[in-house]
Structures are given as C-alpha cells and as structure tokens.
Design goal:
The complex is a heterodimer of chains A (229) and B (163). Chain A is globular and about 45 Å long. Chain A is built from 6 helices and 9 strands; from the N terminus they run E-H-E-H-E-H-E-H-E-H-E-H-E-E-E. In chain A, the strands form 2 sheets. Chain A has a 5-stranded parallel β-sheet, with helices on both faces. In chain A, strands 7-6-9-8 form a 4-stranded antiparallel β-sheet. By secondary structure, chain A is an alpha/beta fold. Chain B has one domain: Rossmann fold, CATH 3.40.50.880. Chain B is 14% helix and 31% strand. Chain B contains 3 helices and 7 strands, in the order βαβαβββββα. In chain B, strand 5 and strand 6 form a beta hairpin. The radius of gyration of chain B is 15 Å and the shape is globular. The chains are: A alpha/beta (229), B alpha/beta (163). Chain A: Its EC number is 6.3.1.14.
Chain lengths: 229, 163
C-alpha cells in the first residue's frame, strides 16, 4: 500500500516513517509548514528543515503552508493530504501520534472523509522502550525546543543519548513530564537514522532561552554523505 | 497486559484453530483500523466464542465480532473522538463507575440479541455489553485511551495472576 507520512522532522514522525517502511511503501512525506509558532496541531521548530531531511531519506516531500489558526489549519491539512493523493496516489496516512487524542481524532476524521487508511504505529507505545530503542538503533535525535521546567539552556541542541535519557527518566519521576515530550515539554529534530541514505549536518545555529522556554534554531544545515564530517 | 504482569500472545483472528487452547485463560479481541471491516464478513472465524466457556473481552471491532458470533447484527453508526458514556447497571465487577469519558473510533455499532445485558451507552450507541450466562464482554470505546481500568479489571476478575 502506498502511504504518506505526516512529517514534522521530529523523532516521532521519523520513527513512524521507519516503521511504515518495514511493511508498506512510503511514497511521500507531507509537511505542514505553520506560520504560527504556537500551532495546536503541528510541530514547529525548524520545520523548514523537513525538505533537507526528506532529501537525506531519499523520499519525496509535499510541503504545504498553513497560517496555523486553530481548526482552519485542519482544512489546510485536508488540502495537503488531498494533494498527496493526487500527486503520489497514496491510499493511507501514517502519523507519529503517541498519546494525543486531539491530533489522532482530527486526523482520523480527515482520513475517514477522504476514504484513506490511517496508521498510528506509535500509538500508546511503551515510552521507555521507545526512547531506548531510538538510541540503540542509532537515531540521532537532537532537542530543538524546550517548553517546561526543569529544562535549562544546556538541553537546546543536545543529543538524546543514554545520559540524556537517564536524566529524562529522573525528570519524568520528579516533575511528571512525559519521557517522550508528548505533553509538549520538549521537541526534537532527527539529523540521521539507520534508514537515512544521507545525513544532515548543522553548520550554524542559535539558541534563544528564557524561563524554561527555549528554541534551538538551525540557520544553516546541509545534506551530506554519511561518511563525511 | 504487560504492565499488569500477564503473559500474552498476539494472534490474528483467523489463527484460532491453530492455538493451544489449554494454555489460554482469556481472550481479548482488539479493534481494527476504521476502514478494515472484513472481519464482519468472516463470522465463521468467531463461532468458537459461544461454543466455549473462555472469558472474552471484545473491543470495538472485537465487540462487533462477539455480537455477530451470537447471532446479533451491526449497523452503520460512525463515531470518532471523545464521548460521554453512562453506566446502566450497578452489579458488574468491571463497570463500577456511573459515567466516564471514552475514545470512540468505529464505523458500526452493535444490535445485540436478548442474551446480552446492556451495561453502558452513549447518546450514539451501546458502549458495553455482558453476556448473561458466559464471561463474555464487549466494549465499543477504546479502553487504551484513559480507561485502561476496563482491561485491568477484566483480567483481575477472570484470570489468575501469573507472571
């Protein structure tokens, strides 16, 4: 079955892509580029990098601009998915939804209206197992935004490795954050993964941080062969 | 189930005949994607439900399969999203709450036969049933979202706890 993945560039949509590729054909990625940094539906930090990630993965990408106004952006999502059906002949949508009923409900409704299959391979996944698997399988996941206590500035641009996961487990127990950042506590960007044919190299970035809110903005990045530095 | 410390095996519903029945204490029939309703044309795959005394919890499409297996029917009645569910009984070991909010994702609702007691309902359709003689339950909502107590209580009620 030809599938389109709703793609933000964060760990969940990248891992959902990887899962979908194990069993079906991923014909395209679909990225909603929101002009509103507070979007309800769509992951926003560094969304402009999705085309570079798609190039590194060797999968076509359909980018669609949305103003990011609540509920109106759902119409934009429907239009983007409709375009993907026309251009790539997809029969189903894959999402990286883990716990968000808000996201899942709205995407299920759009798929139902368009008569498309809807797959959520990470739905209610064991969060600890998932985070450890990302590390063990070699996904290069970087923190691209923090939006809650106790994350300090050092988390911006930090790779999620075993030491970072050790701290996240402590924070989850002590502060009640979700291990995956599903509650919006942090957002991520994937620069390399086992199924990428090339990788992203970050050449220039800037961190802006105040009061447990921060963004790691990537100003210049390139797609390079995996063997290069 | 893993979190509750139970051992389990995941099988496709067409594989029932090949399973070692003496190792099975209970069966949970899970749902399908919204577009996948092929199971409803394969009633022969579920005839084992009324023929055995094994506890069964059917979830969403699983509930539809349970009702079909006992000769009931299903009808188009789609629901997607959160909804309010009201309990109609006061004597059930699993459904002890008066009301709860549940996640719905189904295209069909059930029309159960008289051998089922309706335990809970929403404004749209029947949300939970229990067979009057056998330990067989069906829920239309998805308990994995915010209502994991349904599965936990089904297991503690009908399965001896072994790890």
């Amino acid at each position: 079955m030809k599938l389109g993945v709703l793609f933000s560039g964060g760990k969940d949509s990248v891992y959902a892509t990887y899962q979908a590729m194990q069993k079906e054909e991923v014909s395209c990625l679909i990225a909603l580029v929101s002009e509103n940094s507070e979007s309800y539906m769509f992951h926003t930090p560094n969304i402009h990098l999705t085309s570079l990630q798609a190039e590194a993965m060797g999968i076509p990408i359909l980018e669609y601009i949305t103003k990011g106004v609540e509920e109106e952006e759902l119409e934009d999502l429907k239009k983007a998915i409709t375009l993907a059906v026309e251009q790539y002949g997809i029969e189903g949508i894959v999402t990286g939804a883990v716990l968000s009923v808000y996201q899942a409900t709205r995407i299920q409704k759009i798929c139902d209206a368009l008569s498309l299959w809807c797959y959520n391979p990470l739905w209610h996944i064991d969060q600890d197992w998932y985070m450890q698997t990302l590390i063990d399988e070699g996904f290069v996941v970087i923190v691209s935004g923090v939006f809650s206590a106790p994350f300090d500035e050092t988390w911006l641009g930090r790779r999620i490795d075993n030491e970072a996961l050790r701290l996240l487990r402590i924070y989850a127990a002590k502060y009640g954050i979700t291990l995956t950042g599903e509650g919006g506590e942090l957002e991520t960007l994937v620069t390399d993964a086992p199924f990428f044919t090339k990788k992203l190299v970050i050449l220039r970035s800037e961190s802006v941080y105040a009061n447990y809110n921060g963004r790691f903005s990537i100003q210049h990045a390139e797609v390079r062969d995996k063997l290069s530095f | 189930m893993k979190g509750c410390g139970y051992q389990y095996e995941i099988c496709h519903f067409t594989e029932w005949e090949h399973l070692k029945k003496d190792t099975i204490d209970a069966v949970i029939l899970c749902g399908t994607p919204l577009k996948d309703n092929l199971f409803s044309e394969m009633k022969d795959c579920f005839t084992w439900i009324p023929e055995q005394s094994i506890p069964v919890l059917g979830i969403c499409a699983g509930m539809q399969a349970v009702i079909l297996a006992y000769g009931g029917s299903i009808e188009a009645n789609p629901e997607i999203g959160m909804t309010s569910v009201r309990c109609r009984v006061s004597d059930d070991p699993i459904f002890c709450e008066d009301a709860w909010i549940a996640y719905e994702l189904h295209r069909f609702a059930t029309v159960p036969g008289n051998e089922f007691t309706v335990i809970a309902e929403s404004d749209t359709c029947i949300q939970a049933v229990r067979h009057q003689a056998n330990p067989v339950y069906g829920v239309m909502f998805h308990p994995e979202v915010r209502n994991t107590w349904v599965v936990e209580r089904f297991l503690t009620t009908f399965v001896s706890h072994e790890t």
